[in-house]
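For consistency, the fold was encoded as tokens, which produced the following:
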Amino acid sequence: MFDLIIRNANLPDGRSGIDIAIANGEIAEVASRIEAEAGEEIDATGRLVSPPFVDPHFHMDATLSLGLPRMNRSGTLLEGIALWGELRPILTREALVERALRYCDLAVSQGLLAIRSHVDTSDPRLVTAEALIEVREKVAPYIDLQLVAFPQDGYYRSPGGVDALNRALDMGLDIVGGIPHFERTMADGAASVAALCRIAADRGLPVDMHCDETDDPMSRHIETLAAETVRFGLQGRVAGSHLTSMHSMDNYYVSKLIPLMTEAQINVIPNPLINIMLQGRHDTYPKRRGMTRVRELMEAGLNVSFGHDCVMDPWYSMGSGDMLEVGHMAVHVAQMAGIEDKKKIFDALTVNSAKTMGLEGYGLEKGGNADLVILQARDPVEALRLKANRLTVIRRGKVIARSAPRIAELNLDGRPATVDGAAYAPIVPGA
């Protein structure tokens, strides 16, 4: 007797007609036909059942603050930074917690059950850290929330930045962050990378740095990050987020850089929505796309995962908490239109991101956590095309969100009474 059985599911690896049995919050069996009873059964009706979506790069302290204290009229990164600088001194713990919890509600409805959030430590009050630690505790039953100590105004550049970051880590933040390209000089940026990696090594923590989020091809802090990762023995525990300068680097230098990143086992986190919106702003035409070299990094064997980054905050007035929207943009910007390409993009929203965050028990294997999403699509390729509706979201075997199928009613003579957009794609042999 199981707690729950999901029947007739399609899995991301291409298997179809699969049953998934759940007991005590874990996946107890995955098989073509499970002859057993359960307290509840859900018929997936040939739709995709996926592990939950994972966002390895977000700013929960700023989310849903759009319009405070004013709008970003230019839509640029620099005005967004200036706006956050105006808002930060008047932030309260209560308001931060309220906005973050509202965003987590939205995330759950989108099947997004693991998030890594950067937490600005540039304000010595550290009200952001206090608030997000409280949120981490509140959402623990339904979201895995990791917190990065992020010196947003620069580890060295911000007055008191060194002390504030260490105090934030002492408070219980999980990961060491940085932003070397925002330091006053390239030398200061390189020094910050070395100092922050040493802190991570001494404390036994991972590293996740905003790195080279610029169109400047001479911003090469990722090279230093790779070298310091090896020097401190942090291989596999370090993430380079954004890396947009790689879009503008010459190919010869990149041919040296990518093997260095591979040696260091750097986790790469592009943020397609933000990168395509904020980069290339100084260009007329041709205008650079600004996203890092996703295809080349994947082909080199690096773990590439995509972040949402922002939702309705000073930097980005859009966003929905939908990681499929992120992947949909990635397909276009990276020009990864092939079937296998799209499967890799889907992995970058799920299993790759789970690897970046070091999530235990993630996936659809027997013995893993019973965290699942049923989507209104038959496979990952269709899920990306449709930005598919999440029909059922399950956490540790418990249904925590449901949505009705997205079906339109028609009133046309001689035509069908309803339209399901998920039923339109042709069956492609071998897809």
Q: What stands out?
A: The radius of gyration is 22 Å. The first strand starts at residue 2 and ends at 9. DSSP finds 13 helices and 18 strands in the chain. The chain has two domains: 2-51+363-423, 53-357.
